[in-house]
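User: Hi! I'm a student and our assignment asks us to look at how structure tokens line up with a sequence. Could you show me two examples?

Assistant: Happy to help. In each example below, the sequence comes first and the structure tokens follow. Example one:
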Amino acid sequence: QLQGPEAAKAFVSGFLKRSMPKMKDEAIQDMLTRKAVVLEHYSKRKKKEKRKKRKGFTAKERRELRLFEIEPEQRRYALFLPLHELWKQYIRDLCYGLKPDAQPQMVQAKLLKADLHGAIVTVTKSKCPSYVGITGIILQEMKHVFKIITKDDKLKVVPKLNNVFSLEIDGFISYIYGSKFQFRASERSAKKFKLKGTIDL
């Protein structure tokens, strides 16, 4: 019985003859003397399961959980006046104190990107006359609508499209053209707005 290198050589020679029956013995011997034969075993790699990243609640789940609904007992104008006071202080800090000599363009640019939750707005112009004159505190801003609580404790859902809103703070009056303002509050901070106004609704 062969042992050591002779046994290994015989095993490799026999393996090559079985694997390549058409190859002549001389060619096999030449392969053994001139080249190294490497026998490798490739193990199957387990595929990593990709974890699906959950972005959050779906629109259906949000509706079912009533995440954005304001309960009737909480629809009171007086309840949100402290929020308005906090919003005014936030805007003053954002606009460096809102001094009388502040540039209106600077104030306008800051307001366009500011969070409007807590601001008091008035619908000054609309293609739907029933919206004109609605005044109240913005409780929720969504991509296409404002939810506003009025002084008579009524919650109004006012679309941005085809409406112009006015916003006043410390003597500065700014106008928001809703048709050009259809973004979520979180999206507006990175949005570049043109400061030139338009008379189109």
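Example two works the same way, sequence first and then tokens:
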Amino acid sequence: MSKISKFFKGGGSAASKGRGGPSPQEALARLRETEEMLSKKQEYLETRIERELAIARQHGTKNKRAALQALKRKKRYEKQLTQIDGTLSTIEFQREALENSHTNTEVLKNMGYAAQAMRRVHENMDLNKIDDLMQDITEQQDVAQEISDAISNRAAFGDEFDE
């Protein structure tokens, strides 16, 4: 079965059909395949256009009928080429939107994991315990400062004796 018929007849994997649609990776792969196929068709049409132009030049004024037919075919090919260009632009836009959506989904999942981890970390913390701990730390810092001040003051052993 060709890629085109698979694409239009829904020839996807059974696993993707079972869960309600293709995964983002499957959809991206299909869009890339379609882009590739359309690009090849573009190249083919471009060569056909060049060939028809060569035929028209070859017949020129000698065989106007053949030259006109070649130019008409060239015009048809150009119209098809324009349609393919539009389709490729649409597919490219769709692919980029899908890639962005997939990225956003992954970012959101990771943010959810981070929120759960933070919740687990904060689970064992109580605001009253934290407040008590902060008060204890402040008291111990004050005691340490008093001890430091006491040690750093000059000892005046001989100045305090009364005669």
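Here is something you could point out in your write-up. DSSP finds five helices and no strands in the chain.
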